[in-house]
Amino acid sequence: MEINFTERMVQDQALIEDWLARAFAAESPHADLQEAMEYSLLAGGKRIRPVLTLETCCLCGGEAEAALPFACAVEMIHTYSLIHDDLPAMDNDDLRRGRPTSHVVYGEATAILAGDALLTAAFGQLVRADLPASQIVEGVKCLAHAAGSAGMVGGQALDMAGEGRALSREELELLQSLKTGALISAAAELGCIAAGGTGEQRAQVRTYAQALGRAFQVRDDMLDVISSQNELGKPVGSDRTNEKSTFVSALGLEGCAALVDKLTQEGIDALSGFADPAFHIWLARQLASRNK
Predict the structure, then answer these.
(1) pTM
(2) What is the mean pLDDT of residues 168-183?
(3) Dihedral of the CA atoms 240, 243, 245, 249 (nearest 10)?
(4) I need a labelling partner for 84 at 20 to 30 A (CA). Which of 3, 15, 60, 180 fits?
(5) How many helices (H) and strands (E) does the chain have?
């Protein structure tokens, strides 16, 4: 009997957790740097991005284990971005995944260094993949573009520049397509790269993941209004406190709900060329209705 998708996701998460737990085991600790890195990296979370890498590798005809270094590289980039986003100079949040943020526990300097070290380590993970050199190079290219000034960091810069003023719908969509969407898109594309997928397959999973990323952020903005700190494991209402424009402030809750549904369907439709996209369809719908 085929396992259900929740069980499949749990299995993927277990592979990822095991790999991450061993990532720095052979390294010599320097002061409390490694402890701070692992404090944030191993703090749990849904692991949506690395799961997407593993499952997209399978979707494109590969084996999930072959994509593990790519998947964990994405999670290291994501974790570093959370550490830095939480800093007093950025969002100034003191709670993440239900416990104190890195800078609260280790101080700002160590938190910055832990983020820097995870960013660097991510590219070390990419080259550990047991894949042809051409695919590793393409993976490095993909992740570097998504994580840098043309992607996630550029989006964060726009986010900071937009505090205290109303952003247009177009400005908001650009900001979030870079800050959130770029890494989610890269996670899916890396899975396709690891599988040795075709250019057409990569374009299809990119379209899916970009729609998924946009829907994810709109839902995130909604949860910042309708959820609680206990459910999310992080402060709620911080967007309003920091005077940030969000999809809720632009569209209202009903408009946001309609947009999430529209984007989710667009993502699902993008996968029509694949023989068995059932897990990706399930994941898109789960994220669209998530409460944390």
Answers:
(1) 0.94
(2) 94
(3) 40
(4) 15
(5) 15, 2
